[in-house]
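Hi Prof. W.,

I finally got the Gliding motility lipoprotein GldH prediction working! I wasn't sure whether to trim anything, so I left the full sequence exactly as given:
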Amino acid sequence: MLKNRDLLLLVLLFFSLVSCNSQYYFDEYKPVPKKWHKDSIVSFKIIPPDSINLYNLFVNLRNTSAYKYSNLFLIVEMAFPHGKIITDTLEYKMAEPSGKFLGTGYSDIKENKLWYKEHVIFSESGEYEVKIQQAMRENGMVNGVEELEGITDVGFSIEHKRLKK
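And this is what came out:
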């Protein structure tokens, strides 16, 4: 039978393993309203740890079955500390042709980790800002989807790039 001290050590070990994910430098989610308006921008402010190591950047999304599209278009803007701005229009696959959502999770909510940029070096010191905006369009329509349903959270993460040995 486990003693109280052994049980406490086991619980502490479990939580330290679960809470420590050394590959992530930055990992944050922000909730979006029930409908993500086309003019609503989700932003993240980041101060990188260094200007020499390589990092991979990801856009992270959580969606429910209320999301009715098989893909997703996003506009992602990264503002550098000294004023430079890079804007990308990105398309991500969200579902298989059968309609089955991609991503992880066993419940109604699926989590998607989407590549944004790889092998990034943060060459400027200071605060970076990443802005994410939905840019969905209906087929044949010029104007964007005013309010996008089914996206519950938008996140951004930065991982240390692991070099292969």
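The helical segments are 4-19. Does that look reasonable to you?

Thanks,
D.
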